[in-house]
Amino acid sequence: MSSKKPTNWDLLFQEYFHKVERVLYILVAVGIAIATAEVIYDGSRALGSAFYQGDISHGILKVMDRFLLALMFLEILHTVQIVFSESYHLACVEPFLMVAIIASIRRFLLISFETSHSGTIDPERFRYFMIEMVVLGLLVIALVGAVLLLRKSRKASS
To answer: At 84, is the pLDDT very low, low, confident or very high (cuts 50, 70, 90)?
Structure first.
């Protein structure tokens, strides 16, 4: 295997690309921060209106949906912050796993809330909900296992 020494053009392009990448990460971080603030504000409004309207269960569903979505945004923002650190090689994986866990639990909670508060439900649709809940449960267990393995391997390498 021959190792080729990078030319000045390669280094210049690499430096330029790195700067562009940083600017794009900053723009993504700002966008996520604004979206998170909007989702939290919307969730707070939904919480306030849930108490003044008679449909508390629908309001609670909306509040849960908004705040769990805000948690997902915050985890993604944390991932962007990790990318800005110099040693993000393996540490960057864990926040993505956390976002996936939160998203799966969010869907799990929404399905259970929908099925318990929808009144009558078609048996076929209920069956699909139950299959989805089993798959989500297994997915959460697998993702938690991945986080534990990642942490264990990180401790072993330190």
So the answer is: low
**Separation between Cα atoms, residue 129 and residue 133, nearest integer Å:** 6
The amino acid occupying position 91 is: A
Contact criterion met (CB below 8 Å) for 47 and 59: yes
pLDDT tens sequence across 100-148: 888 888 888 888 877 777 777 788 888 888 898 899 899 999 989 988 9
Neighbours of 101 (CB within 10 A): 20
Average pLDDT, the chain: 79
Q: Mapped to the 3 state alphabet, what secondary structure does 30-83 carry?
A: HHHHHHHHHHHHHHHHHHHHHHHCCCHHHHHHHHHHHHHHHHHHHHHHHHHHHH
Query: How far is residue 133's CA from residue 108's CA, in Å, rounded to a whole number?
Result: 6
Q: How many residues does the chain have?
A: 158
Measure CA 131 to chain center: 23
- Asked if 105 and 68 touch (Cβ cutoff 8 Å), the reply is yes
